[in-house]
Please model this.
Amino acid sequence: MSASTASVWNSLEVVKLIASLLTPAALALLGIFIQRLSRRYEDRRWVNQKVVEKRLEIYDQLAPELNDVLCYFTFVGCWKDLDPPAVVKMKRDLDRKLHLAKPLFPAEFFAACRAFLNECFLSFGGGWGSDAQLRTTVAGRMEVHPRPWDPSWAQHFSEEHADPDTVQELYKNVMKEFSASFGQLDFTPSDHLSVLPPDIRRDAMR
Model:
């Protein structure tokens, strides 16, 4: 065997030896990588699950008041039972809850809520530091209110009136964006609130 042939043979043996040593090490490194990747996936899934749970918890707090606001400004459901000061207080409560929940929801959901509330309420309508005013008519409310009507409640109403159809569409958009925040829920707008009462006094509200 020539010297050159022996050299090539020795080189092949060295390569085989190195390959045999590297294979277990490579497999071990691959295993560590897969383990870390799996752990990262599980951690992310756990965080996502907690975010979903928190969003549902927050929405359980928001939903009743959002629905009451919708009812009050579209004259459906419980609107006759709500005192004007209570509806104004709902606005403050919703503002606070939305502000606290903002980091946990997509910006689109927060924007939809803001658009809905801005349509229903006029902020600083009575001047700096005053409560938000109701952008709806007082006409027709005094006659059907189940409790004595307090004349001081007049200060809670704005001269600007929201369009009930617009209020309803903005509310539906809130529901749509909430569903979209989960990526798989389907919001169907064909609920009983999709049709406003035929006797609603639209002309008085505009």
In short: Residues 52-205 form one domain. Residues 105 and 181 are 7 Å apart (CA to CA). The helical segments are 3-74, 84-101, 107-120, 141-144, 164-180, 202-205. DSSP finds six helices and two strands in the chain.
